[in-house]
Write a structure and sequence with these properties.
This protein is mainly alpha-helical. The chain is 86% helix and 0% strand.
Length: 448
Amino acid sequence: MLRNWKEILLLAIPSLVSFASMTMTGTINLILVGQLGALIIAIVGVSNIIMYNAFALFSGIGHTVNYLVAQNHGAGDMKKGIQRTYIAMYMCLIFALLIAVVGWVGADDILRWTGGSKELVETGDFYLELRFYAMSFGIVNFAFHGFLRGIGATKLSMVVSLLVNVPIIYLTYTLTFGHWGMPDLGLTGAGIAILIGEGLQTLICVFIFFIVLHKKYHTRSRIAFAIQWVEMKLLMIESGKLGVQEFSLSISMYIFTAFVARLGDHALAANEVALSIMSFGFMPAFAFGSTATILVGQHVGKGTPLKGRRVGTDTAILGSIFLILLGTVEFIFAKQITHLYTNDPEVYKLAAYLIQVSAFLQIFDGLLNFYAGGLRGIGDTTFLLRVSFVVSWFIFVPLAYVFIFVFHWGSMGAWLALYAFLMVFGIAVMVRFYRTDWTAVRLKEASH
């Protein structure tokens, strides 16, 4: 067991640092732009949810690359892993263009559909448009990181994240407030900073894939450029299932945010501050979930799925310990942390209350990520799609509506619905993980 724990931590800690740097960047940016007022916090919050939906719809490509490459790496067949990565990149480029067009044409309409005030729409439409452009680079970057994690290069993925997030913070500070000779662009400056950062990350990822990794994996070989249609079909089906799974979650969060928006801009701002802080709990959940995908997938490739089941369990144990420690800190210092975001007492006191209630409930989000990561590692994507659809649309959205508009429980009702949903989802995925017949698990192959 100790050997497993060491291997898990060697992969998970760099992923944790990588996700932490992204989360910290988002947090610092929100704190910076939060000085512009509650309306700006609300705009950024709504934009984050919209971007989560845009990302989720196409994130299945990155998740698919992650688990397929992990299996190929375990099987010692990286030629196929590289071919699959190329196919994924072709798909990403097409969708990146689509995302940019949507942002250019419909940013203001999308904000309006969210249900925010007229002032929110007028102030935030160009910022959201810039975020769409940044997301075009973001989905390409996510696929590259999926490849890096698939081969176990989580340290390299971490280095890329650290290299990019520092300039984003610098540019947000200077362009938002006009410091150090930069123009004072306000919220627009924050959007430009994210766009530049994502574009820079794409350039770094391209350099690593085609230059740094070429000697070991032959990433520029002509064979890799060839499209095998059976592999294209596999990538499209698997990416579609995982993308729709994530989109079911994200669109339900979008509706959840639209419900909260009708409680007023202060409630929406408090909701965003609380979500930003709780994202530090999502951070170890994502990191250990990604580690479960890598290790389980590699053991499937090696033909030792039962060892994959064992390492998946150990990953969940370690991840849960991290979440309990983090929840304790969030519970004790909730008010002090939320006060960093804004001086508006109506916002930071409500946000602190939401955090204290949910500090230890986030363990269910951890179970969801840990065991979903393990199921992705064996390619059990159909179950993830089905359960995501059911719990999102038959539990989360109805409960949020009832608690907010029927029982009139306000922001607390919204968060009770959120964690009821995560509890059911997390337990369902965990049960599936242990009820799977692991002796029958095989390497994922394309159907001819």
